[in-house]
Design goal:
With 231 residues, the protein is an alpha+beta fold. It has five helices and four strands. Strands 1-2-3-4 form a four-stranded antiparallel sheet, with helices on one face. The N terminus is likely disordered.
Length: 231
């Protein structure tokens, strides 16, 4: 839109300039062709600069949205801490259970260094969609490998307990995020953008307790567009 406006403004400027010179000096069509060429050169030169500005604007917008996700995640953690005794993050069935494919920070950041495209299957398959991979307003990009968080069962098929003392009010991650934003999902400014996250579990108790950690990212380029918080 900015480029189109620039084009119209440039054309109008040179068109007026042509008529002014024609009225004063009787310039020929050949000279008009020169002016047209000048206009085209000016526009072509300006396009990359405006394109960079627009891309920078998208990046800034996405980072702002990532900040919003972390703010709401922290609010959720504090709320569950007061209601459930131990704080957890959206999508966590319990504070000591991970969401996504990471159980430690080192592995997470090692992968982020190589996670510049949503089409990276080995890394992308470790990440969870914030608002749901098939969200009608913001579906995950074609060729990505993210998945949806689910509510863990208390026991497995063998009767073994896998979610001991998990809170009854827990929901799958996309629902908890959705409610945190008053049922209005955040949409990435990028065509192939999509908000994803992982949670590294907390552990311990008392003075030795460690809180869970969360990393949120935009699938457009998680290596650059990500935010991390250690509560």
């Amino acid at each position: 839109m900015i480029i189109q406006l620039l084009n119209r403004q440039c054309f109008r400027y040179f068109f007026d300039l042509f008529h002014a010179t024609r009225q004063n000096n009787g310039q020929s069509l050949a000279e008009f062709a020169v002016i047209t060429a000048m206009m085209a050169t000016f526009i072509v030169t300006a396009i990359p600069k405006y394109s960079d500005i627009m891309e920078m604007g998208k990046g800034n917008k996405s980072v702002e949205e990532l900040d919003k996700l972390l703010i709401q995640a922290k609010n959720f953690y504090e709320t569950t801490s007061s209601l459930e005794g131990r704080g957890r993050l959206p999508g966590q069935d319990k504070y000591n259970m991970q969401v996504g494919g990471y159980s430690d920070v080192i592995s997470l950041f090692n992968d982020l260094d190589n996670f510049s495209s949503f089409s990276n299957q080995s890394i992308g398959s470790k990440w969870v969609s914030v608002f749901g991979k098939s969200n009608p307003k913001s579906p995950m990009p074609e060729g990505s490998f993210f998945y949806d968080d689910t509510v863990s069962a208390v026991t497995n098929l063998k009767g073994e307990v896998i979610c001991q003392n998990c809170p009854n009010g827990r929901k799958k991650g996309s629902e908890e995020w959705y409610e945190l934003f008053n049922r209005e999902e955040l949409v990435s400014p990028y065509q192939d953008g999509h908000y994803i996250y992982v949670i590294i579990p907390g552990n311990g108790s008392g003075y030795n307790s460690k809180s869970p950690k969360i990393c949120v990212a935009d699938a457009e380029n998680p290596k650059i567009l990500h935010k991390f918080i250690d509560l």
